[in-house]
Design goal:
Largest interface: A-B, 19 and 23 residues
Low-confidence stretches of chain B: none
Strand content of chain B: over 45%
Largest sheet of chain A: 7 strands, mixed
Number of helices of chain A: 0
Structural class of chain A: mainly beta
Mean pLDDT of chain A: 96
Oligomer: heterodimer
Radius of gyration of chain B: 13 Å
Order of helices and strands of chain B: EEEEEEEEEEE
Helix content of chain B: under 10%
Shape of chain B: globular
Number of strands of chain A: 11
Chain lengths: 121, 106
């Protein structure tokens, strides 16, 4: 059973960098698929942030691209998110998820439980 | 950017009712659309992929249809455990979620 677990600070100061890690168990990141981050501001909808392949290939939401870096550490079977210059608008529950794709479809099939990050001084 | 809209934004229905949610894309996305269910405090759960394919283990009362720009999600007989917010998501060009439809029991 594939499991994902987010970790990182729950409180970040404005203008600083938000850093989160997603540890994957039950599946080797090196085996394939893309791995990504999705966030959800309190009481609002879902926003895809970006995704990474085990090779390190990345693609990001254009609205966040200038501030986002996603990296992967296959030796630890985990991937990470960095979001710079945060403001209160970046306060959200951050989810990590696996992007499954084949000839039949393309979807986020396994998700972490989510972690709330609050941006406040 | 592809924008997604959903209607209604919320609805109340009785147990056993048929519930229908619509999702519209701002441009043709073929059948590149998924539906997720999110219960309070939980991560989203995939229900329907590729517009009409039921994910393994998901009850058959859930179904999806549509292609191009207009899509429909249906619960054939609403159950108490279906109380949740439902999101559509396109993957024709990157990924965009709809704003969600909150479903509760009347």
């Amino acid at each position: 059973q594939v499991q994902l677990q987010e970790s990182g600070p729950g409180l970040v100061k404005p203008s600083e960098t938000l850093s989160l890690t997603c540890a994957v168990s039950g599946y080797s990141i090196s085996s394939g698929y893309y791995w990504g981050w999705i966030r959800q501001p309190p009481g609002k909808g879902l926003e895809w942030i970006g995704s990474i392949y085990h090779s390190g290939s990345t693609y990001y939401n254009p609205s966040l691209k200038s501030r986002v870096t996603i990296s992967v550490d296959t030796s630890k079977n985990q991937f990470s998110l960095k979001l710079s210059s945060v403001t209160a608008a970046d306060t959200a529950v951050y989810y990590c998820a696996r992007r499954y794709f084949d000839w039949q479809g393309d979807y986020f099939d396994y998700w972490g439980q989510g972690t709330l990050v609050t941006v406040s001084s | 950017d592809i924008q997604m809209t959903q209607s209604p934004s919320s609805l109340s229905a009785s147990v056993g009712d048929r519930v229908t949610i619509t999702c519209q894309a701002s441009q043709d996305i073929s059948n590149y659309l998924n539906w997720y269910q999110q219960k309070p405090g939980k991560a989203p759960k995939l229900l329907i992929y590729d517009a009409s394919n039921l994910e393994t283990g998901v009850p058959s009362r859930f179904s999806g249809s549509g292609s191009g720009t207009d899509f429909t999600f249906t619960i054939s007989s609403l159950q108490p455990e279906d109380i949740a917010t439902y999101y559509c998501q396109q993957y024709d060009n990157l990924f965009t979620f709809g704003p969600g439809t909150k479903v509760d029991i009347k």
